[in-house]
Amino acid sequence: MAHRDAIVTFLDEQLPGGDFNDPSFNGLQVEGKESVTKIVTGVTAGKELFARAAEAEADFIVTHHGHYWRYGTPSLTGWEKRRLDILLENKMSLYASHLPLDKHPRLGNNAQLLALLNAEITNDFSSHEDTSSSYMGMIMRGKHLDEITGILENGLNTKCITLPFGPAIIRTVAVVSGGGGYKSFAEALDAKVDLFITGDTAEIYNDAKDSGTNVIFAGHHATERLGVKALGDLLQKTFEVQVEFIDVPTGL
After folding, report:
1. Average pLDDT along the chain, 252 residues, taken 10 residues at a time
2. What angle is formed at CA 178 by the lines to CA 8 and CA 44, rounded to 5 degrees?
3. How far apart are CA 70 and CA 80, in angstroms?
4. Using an 8 Å Cβ cutoff, are 144 and 213 in contact?
5. Mind listing the domains of the chain with CATH numbers?
């Protein structure tokens, strides 16, 4: 058993949000009971995740995509009230970490993606105003593009879309979990990496082909499972609590 506030303090220290102008309200979004015996981790806040966490008798939920965003409304009405009612009725806390979890050099989605490929972090990547949210990496012995696709599909339980227009043997990789978009692809071109990996698809087929660049789209949800899983493992080692990852696949 652990105290809610001790868990929040630990998470705030591990995932400081001050370096990012983040659309997410990172940190404790909903306060639940003080005593925590079970934590559930998940990618995205939603009724299904909250209901399954309640069934699992969780006291505390940690997500990458929380409920509160700066472009949304704080009003508790309609579908938003019905969603949060599950937390309030079951006295479950909700903690969210968006860009800080993307960028964490060990636990983060992007660091975990590179680790999955046995790639060493070499530099920051994906500029985000005054900072960056991701990394580039080096695969020292190189891997064939098909091998990397297989590793991602097996490790992330996903189906990749691969644009095989660059070198067959991959050594330099730039990754952006979730949605990299045109901007990050342009940065990958400038960095002259062998492979750009992201989640969401973008209409960059012809640019990738004409520039001779490999691209893998591995799914937004799939590429953002790893961070909360790694964070959950750390929480379980640090506190005397049970931690369960609950996956709610989106197919996106």
Report:
1. 97 90 94 98 98 98 97 90 97 97 96 98 88 95 97 97 98 96 95 97 97 98 98 96 97 92
2. 45
3. 15
4. no
5. 2-98+225-245 (3.40.1390.30), 102-221 (3.40.1390.30)
